[in-house]
Amino acid sequence: MAEGQYKWGVVIIACMAIFIIVLDSSAMNVAITTLVKDLNTTLSIIQSIIALYALIIASFMLLGSKLQDILGRKKTFLTGVFIYASGTVIATLSINAFMLLLGWAVLEGIGAAMMFPATTTIVGASYQGKDKITAFGIWGGIAAMGAAIGPIVGGIFTTYLSWRLVFGSELLFVALILIFRGYLTESQPTLEWKDLDVVGAILSIVSLVLIVLGILFLTKPEYWAYVVVLLVSGSLLFAVFLLWQRRRINKGLEPLSDISLLKNRIFGLGNLNSILQQIPLAGFLFIIPVFLQQVTHLNAFMTGVALLPASLTIMVFSLLGAKLSSRLDPKYVMMIGFLVSAMGTWILGGTFNINTQIADIIPGTVVFGVGVGLLLSQLTNLTMSAARKDQESDAAGFLNAFKNLGYSMGTALIGVLLLLGVFWGLTASIQSSGLAENMTTTEIQDSLFSYVEKMQTTAPQDIPANLVPQVTQMVDATISSAMQMTFNALALIFFLGFVTSIFIPSRKKQQT
Description:
The chain is mainly α and 512 residues long. It has 17 helices and no strands. It holds the Pfam family MFS_1.
């Protein structure tokens, strides 16, 4: 940092980048219903675009991280900013789902994959000691703030103006980043283009795409035959990627990523815990808006208001958690975070029914927010602390790749779980009620699938008037039951995170 420059200028620029990347997902979640209508598409397609945004970030993250060694941190970051901005313009002007996919998921995703790891290494290289802990605490807090104000921003724009302004407003942050780019210092490139592991890049990208596509294909029964093929192929290709990296290292060639980092227990478990934290967070941010808008019929703005207590709690406790780690071992802060988050999701699981009001979900969402805030305050600094200075780029790539893979998997997996819960629940309810005595199970399912995909909750048009109240209650009750099952699954994932945290070495053991 140049003499006389504002001390926290670097972290503020990094935070603006993280803020707009996170804002996209959290703000657009409350616009899901509007997007389905405006773009004349389905829930599963919008769900896929949200998941693919995080997936493309994850898939290109290792490549984006390695580019820092070829171009330098600052140039990689700024290139990502320009690509992200071009995607933002296309997303703002979208007239169909394909344009939204291209602008948001593809271009913004690739731009974010170049910005994300660069922010981690830029912050890590610019601060030392307590300042570094504080900087990463701010970094995590601002990321949480993006999630915090995202739903309310998205709600205001979607309800009173246009969801397009969520994307359009991000261009203001892009302009600020470019204006104050002088705070960033360039790192010296250590590699040339010929050193880039192209095969490794292709293997990492394709393997992760196949895994998440396999999960997303669960939303369409006609694609179920391909699910196992995609998941197994993706997993095998990722194993091949790891073997390829080891082969290059053994031959003295530059790997895409230093996989020796994964042998470090702190780094490996830190990444695993990042995935286990992101899956339920993404699921929470996806399915709460679906329920509030479809069952309780709230608009996007009120959905944002309903999520605000959780979001603000996440932001506050991510900042408090950074201070708490100076008194309590980060390992124990994480363990508390996982347990509290699990408790919050378990509480929420029992609150959803056809008469649920905003006030009913606030206690559970606040408890959830406390736990997630504590987790966000610790994971980045604890995981990155396991890397040597010469491994920082690779470490940032792995950490952010796994983080976004977790978010993508969460949106896909939890969204699929909710859709299938509603689908099978409605099938069983209709069969037991005798409303479709002359239809086979297959015929009932064929007639229901489009109905569920379009997120309809009113009685279908061809239902006799005298049966509408019964059918409407059946639909709402089925969705509520599916929500309870889904939140219980989220609680189990958080509890698994608590169990894996037990095996992270404590700070005292690390020092000895």
